[in-house]
C-alpha cells in the first residue's frame, strides 16, 4: 500500500466513525475557519485571538530568498520565547494567508519545518502567539520564479 492509498483509507474510516458517532466531534473543533478564510496577516492573528502583531528578534523564520518552484517552498518557524501557545506560518499574497498553525505546550519545542505553496513573490511571516495574547513575528520576502498556486 502506498501513502496515497493509506490516506484515502484513513479518511474513509474517519468518515465512517464520525457517521456512526464513535468519534467525538470535538476532534474537529480545533479547526478555525475564520482564521483560514482571513485575507490579511492582521485578520489571521485577530481570528486566532491575539493582539496586533509586533516584530520581534525572538521569532525566527527560515525561507529561501528565491524559490525556484513556488509549489514547494521550504519554510521554518521557531521562537525562543517562553509561554508560547501557537506558532503560525503566513504568506501575505496567497489566496489563504494562513499556511500552517502549530499548537505548542511545555512538552513541544516551538521549532517547525513545513513546505508551502506560494502563488507569487510575497512576504512570509512566522508569528508566535503567547498565552497572554501577544503576537510577535518575523518576516522575510520570498521571490518566486515559477508559479505555485497559479500554475
Q: What is the level 1 CATH name of the largest domain? A: Mainly Beta
Distance between the termini: 30 Å
Gross morphology: globular
Structural class: alpha+beta
Helical run tally: 3
Oligomeric status: single chain
| CATH architecture name of the largest domain | Sandwich
What is the average of the pLDDT values? 85
The Rg value, from CA coordinates, equals 17 Å
CATH superfamily of the largest domain: SoxY domain
> Into which percent range does the helicity of residues fall?
10-25%
Could you tell me the number of beta strands? 9
Low-confidence stretches: none
Report strand %: 35-45%
Give the count of structural domains: 2
> N-to-C SSE series?
HHHEEEEEEEEE
What fold name goes in the CATH topology slot of the largest domain? Immunoglobulin-like
Task: Report on this structure.
With 151 residues, the chain is of the alpha+beta class. The chain has two domains: 1-30; 32-144, SoxY domain (Immunoglobulin-like, Sandwich). It has helices at residues 3-20, 33-37, 41-47, and strands at 54-55, 59-62, 66-67, 73-79, 84-91, 98-103, 111-116, 122-130, 135-144. The strands form two sheets. Strands 1, 3, 5, 6, 8 and 9 form a six-stranded mixed beta sheet that branches. A hairpin with a 6-residue loop joins strand 5 (84-91) and strand 6 (98-103). The protein starts with a helix and ends in a 7-residue tail after the last strand. The relative contact order is 0.21. The mean pLDDT is 85. Keywords: Signal. InterPro entries: SoxY, SoxY_sf, Sulphur_oxidation_SoxY, TAT_signal, TAT_signal_bac_arc. Residues 47-149 form the Ig-like SoxY domain. Residues 1-29 form the signal peptide. This is Sulfur-oxidizing protein SoxY.
Amino acid at each position: 500500500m502506498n501513502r496515497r492509498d493509506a490516506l484515502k483509507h484513513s479518511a474513509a474510516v474517519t468518515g465512517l466513525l464520525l457517521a456512526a458517532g464513535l468519534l467525538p466531534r470535538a476532534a474537529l473543533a480545533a479547526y478555525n475557519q475564520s482564521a483560514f478564510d482571513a485575507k490579511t496577516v492582521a485578520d489571521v492573528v485577530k481570528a486566532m485571538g491575539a493582539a496586533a502583531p509586533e516584530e520581534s528578534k525572538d521569532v525566527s523564520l527560515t525561507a529561501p530568498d528565491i524559490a525556484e518552484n513556488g509549489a514547494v517552498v521550504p519554510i521554518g518557524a521557531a521562537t525562543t520565547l517562553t509561554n508560547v501557545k501557537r506558532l503560525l506560518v503566513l504568506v501575505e499574497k496567497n489566496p489563504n494567508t494562513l499556511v500552517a498553525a502549530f499548537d505548542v505546550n511545555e512538552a513541544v519545542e516551538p521549532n517547525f519545518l513545513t513546505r508551502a505553496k506560494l502563488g507569487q513573490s510575497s512576504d512570509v511571516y512566522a508569528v508566535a502567539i503567547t498565552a497572554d495574547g501577544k503576537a510577535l513575528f518575523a518576516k522575510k520576502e520570498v521571490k518566486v520564479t515559477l508559479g505555485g498556486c497559479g500554475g
